[in-house]
Amino acid sequence: MMSDESLISVVVPAFNAARFLPDALRSIESQRYPQLEILVVDDGSTDGTADAAQSFSWVRLIRQTNGGIAAARNTGVLAARGRWLAFLDADDLWTEQKLSLQINVLQRRSDVDLIAGRVEQFHDPSWDRSTVPLPDAGDAYTAGAMLIRRDDFLRVGLFNPALRVGEFVDWHSRAMNFGLRECLLDSVVLRRRIHGENTTLRRQDSTGDYLAVLKAHLDRKRTAACH
Question: For strand 138-139 and strand 82-87, is the pairing parallel, antiparallel, or unpaired?
Fold first, then answer.
């Protein structure tokens, strides 16, 4: 199916995310950009994630067996119909002007292939470590802060499904090596919820994935320096 020139496809990977997913979807609903396709990819959840997604009539629900966040995002990308791609994790929130700010830049500037923004983190009230200080907003090396043309995303390739963490750092490194041109908004576009069940907090066995991502990144930099 041909993609709609003005349509933004938003891919929301969700695993046992019934508690947070409605907030994430409402933050998409509040965007000041009307041409949206929202794809929630239920990655083998065993809670009420699918029901939570289906309570929003405008959501397109895709179910699959559990394969991890990279595999879930890839499923959404391959099913997307829009010219543009955005991502939001099921436990995070967008600021309400996120898409309108970013699409205005991409439609106006032919020298920019992908645009990101800044991220702030916040404690979910349910987390018993909510007194731990959070860093200020920072540059967004996370999928939820990015907007990109779908064709440009696919030129770089899909997320690596073998990685359970660090999949966006790996993809971003490949994108920069590929020559995609990036622009960073000096505005917070993503609010990342810290709740004690975040993948990077839960998967303390993920050091190997991070090392693999770092090695691949350094290998690409060495290769690029030789040409």
Answer: unpaired
